[in-house]
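Structural prep section.
Before we set up the soaks we want a predicted structure of the protein with 2-acetamido-2-deoxy-beta-D-glucopyranose in place, mainly to decide which crystallisation condition to try first. Input record follows.
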Amino acid sequence: MDFKLNLKPSFFFFSFLIFIFLLSKPVLGSASNPKCISSERQALLTFKQSLTDPSARLSSWSGPDCCKWRGISCDPGTSHVIKIDLRNPNQTLRLYGGFKEGSLGGKINPSLTRLKFLSYLDLSSNDFNFMEIPEFIGSIVSLRYLNLSFSSFYGEVPASLGNLSKLESLDLYAQTFIDEGPTSYNLRASNLGWLSGLSSSLTYLNMGFVSLSGADETWLQDISRLPKLKELHLFNCELRNLPLSLSSSANLKLLEVLDLSRNSLRSPIPNWLFDLTGLRKLTLQWVELQGSIPSEIKKLRLLETLDLSFNALSGEIPDVLGNLPQLKYLDLSHSSLEGQIHRLLDALSKNKGDGLVYLGLNSNSLNGTLPAESLGELRNLQILDFSLNYFTGSIPSSVGNMASLKKLALHFNSMEGKIPESLGKLDRLETLDLSSNKFSGAIPQSLAAISSLHTLNLSYNKLEGRIPKNPKFKDPSIYIGNELLCGKPLPKKCSRKQQTVVVN
Ligand SMILES: *[C@@H]1O[C@H](CO)[C@@H](O)[C@H](O)[C@H]1NC(C)=O
Ligand SMILES: *[C@@H]1O[C@H](CO)[C@@H](O)[C@H](O)[C@H]1NC(C)=O
Ligand SMILES: *[C@@H]1O[C@H](CO)[C@@H](O)[C@H](O)[C@H]1NC(C)=O
Ligand SMILES: *[C@@H]1O[C@H](CO)[C@@H](O)[C@H](O)[C@H]1NC(C)=O
Ligand SMILES: *[C@@H]1O[C@H](CO)[C@@H](O)[C@H](O)[C@H]1NC(C)=O
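Run finished without errors. Recording the tokens verbatim:
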């Protein structure tokens, strides 16, 4: 009895240890070394056999443990294949054709549907030679991430994708750098009703270069049924319809990034847009926007990037834009905006945020003078482009305080007076274009101090005097009017294009 009683606790303790050991061993073992499930290995091999692989990217797909194959990841606990990442690594060579060598192609085998735990599938930047996106992709219902971008698919986007009810990220961006495509729009979606199947999960959608002309009447309603959406990219989708009202805009409250660029929307800026108060980035470039920029835009308090360039916007720029606390990038170029910019720049310069980095107002009908005080306060501004407007007056010497400036473009205005010597304080300046104005007097010799300056165009003014002797300007190409004049009669030295000095 005593013996038994003495034995019992240690026996239990000992068997408990063994039990823990047996329990933990497979878990620990598989965590460091998941072992491939043979039916899944077979499914992957079948998938591989249907692909073409000219650069042998799948050469590791032969050993017994498919979890170790290149591009495959398994769940550490269950060993199920959860991720297939076959994105072409040769992205940068895409433009030069090198991409094609690294591309996978051929057929996508339905054996993929046997991977019941696959949550991540990236076949992007490959070359599937204008075959259709297989319908059966829609039955891999475990998918959370699907990337078929840049892969030369053709035809109708299968509505079966609406069965992927867990999908969080869908990238179908259809631009291809292979020119042999049957049309410029290889993929199309005539109906986006299937998106409703993704309503409980989808946060990212990119259908750039997919023709949505067939879905034109309802595209926005369909999209607005995705209440979790954070990013929407519909660049160049043949959209022609931007509804002015949207009852369900409230559903898009989480939207942070909206890009509808390169569509023929031919519309004023609709008011429902200002309900999307989570927006950080709004890009409506080249969409034929008309009318003025409503001051309600001030409701988009989180906006960091606003790009409304290449439109037909008219009226004055609302100065409330200057109060957006996070604004870093503002491009309103290439429109028909008019009036003065004093109040806008005053607001921008008083802004307590990190500060504006990019300000493009070029190619509009803006006029008046440049505001002396506020301009000098834009200390984070790197790019200032006010060219091709009707600005008058002189350059305020406060520009010398814009310590971050890399590019100052004021060409094609009606500005006059002396060019201030304070420009020489801009020690990060790379490009200075003051051409086609009425500047007079001597060329400021302080420009010689800016070692970063590589492009200087002062032509078509009334300037006089010497060209500043910047060590970087050694052997510049010097323009007088349109005539190329080399400092020394050595033709070779004229070819240094990166260092251009232009005067008249
Ligand atoms: C990427 O491109 C280079 C040059 O064309 C080629 O040598 C290399 O094999 C490619 N890499 C892959 C993984 O295809
Ligand atoms: C999809 O893949 C491309 C490269 O092939 C990449 O640029 C893009 O960011 C990916 N999309 C997502 C949503 O991760
Ligand atoms: C998947 O979607 C298609 C097309 O919408 C539909 O016909 C099919 O029944 C769906 N399959 C499943 C398993 O839900
Ligand atoms: C500036 O342009 C506006 C609108 O085109 C015009 O009414 C105004 O007279 C112009 N002001 C100056 C100073 O040219
Ligand atoms: C300099 O400005 C003139 C007039 O604006 C333009 O015609 C010329 O192309 C410019 N030159 C360079 C090198 O940028």
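Observations: The chain has one domain: 80-498.
Flagged for discussion at group meeting.
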